[in-house]
Amino acid sequence: MNEQTKVTDATPIKTLPDAQTVLDVEHYTDRLFRFRVTRPPTLRFRSGEFVMIGLMGDPDPKTGRQKPLLRAYSIASPSWDDELEFYSIKVQDGPLTSKLQHIKKGDEIILRPKPVGTLVHDALLPGKRLWFFSTGTGFAPFASLLRDPQTYEDYDQVIVTHTCREAAELTYSKNLIQHLHEDEMMQELLGDGLKKLVYYPTTTREDSPKMGRITDLLENGTLFKDLGIDGISAETDRAMVCGSMGLNLDIKRILEGHGLREGANSEPAEYVVEKAFVG
Ligand SMILES: Cc1cc2nc3c(=O)[nH]c(=O)nc-3n(C[C@H](O)[C@H](O)[C@H](O)COP(=O)(O)OP(=O)(O)OC[C@H]3O[C@@H](n4cnc5c(N)ncnc54)[C@H](O)[C@@H]3O)c2cc1C
């Protein structure tokens, strides 16, 4: 059992198994927040992968024993970062996030250091233009990939779409893109950044400069018209998709209509998909 033990004076105090310390928490809305934790020195991962994280569950009423309550989370920070960042939903009656939303600096979370996932560069064949299609917290793996220099070294252009119900739910992605455009190190990679990294946020409920489901905007050609491009082709375009089951299925259908095939770590192809959550 991988339990860590802290010794203070005479009394040993057990911390959580695979414990990491919370360094920073930022809340965006009553449904969304992000937090940063320490990174286990031995943890290696590829930008875009996910791990299991969580907290101890409530004590069993009969035995008093507590079991870890773990959920899959995309690592939102890039592989080079010394710390780990996560971007999270708050489900009010959700077993984990009803508690996780209250974490603060200095608290501990559990992190199982076994990263996996298909939203990685290795699962795509070389291409010229890379699309990231996301809804809600599905932006998290792209927050990692967008901060990874390989993304800009491998592609001429990167287009990231993020769709949420309300404008405030776009704050995390908007801040991150703005930071990338302003970052001196990134400016070298981005060149004329406004063309190389394109951000296309849309809302489905609240009024915003661009409204609509990304699938509709793709199918009726609005997206291509707005970006001044001809369309998607299997020769040049690669895509990563992370959203609800419905969004993933719809985008898969659209991409396959353009001739792209689904890839995997074992067999790279033109696009890859991962669920942002189960349900
Ligand atoms: C591969 C993978 C990666 C994931 N990465 C993230 C991530 O980076 N950030 C994150 O917040 N969640 C992520 N999730 C979802 C996460 O695992 C949990 O479901 C979420 O934290 C809620 O946990 P819970 O115990 O509070 O509620 P759960 O019992 O897990 O979920 C309750 C219900 O809430 C809804 N729900 C759960 N998660 C979300 C979500 N993210 N967005 C909208 N509705 C949701 C679903 O309807 C679900 O049935 C990921 C899931 C998978 C499969």
From TrEMBL:
InterPro entries assigned to the protein according to its UniProt record, in alphabetical order: FAD-bd_FR_type (IPR017927), FNR_bac (IPR033892), FNR_nucleotide-bd (IPR039261), FNR_type-1 (IPR051930), OxRdtase_FAD/NAD-bd (IPR001433), Riboflavin_synthase-like_b-brl (IPR017938)
Cofactor requirement: FAD
The FAD-binding FR-type domain, residue ranges: 15-122
CDD domains: FNR1 (cd06195)
EC class name: oxidoreductase
Reactions listed under catalytic activity: 2 reduced [2Fe-2S]-[ferredoxin] + NADP(+) + H(+) = 2 oxidized [2Fe-2S]-[ferredoxin] + NADPH
Enzyme Commission number(s): 1.18.1.2
PANTHER family documented for this protein: FLAVODOXIN_FERREDOXIN--NADP REDUCTASE, OXIDOREDUCTASE FAD/NAD(P)-BINDING DOMAIN PROTEIN
Family: Belongs to the ferredoxin--NADP reductase type 1 family.
Keyword match Cytoplasm: no
Protein name: ferredoxin--NADP(+) reductase
MF terms (GO), sorted A to Z: ferredoxin-NADP+ reductase activity
Pfam families, per the entry: NAD_binding_1
Keywords: FAD, Flavoprotein, NADP, Nucleotide-binding, Oxidoreductase
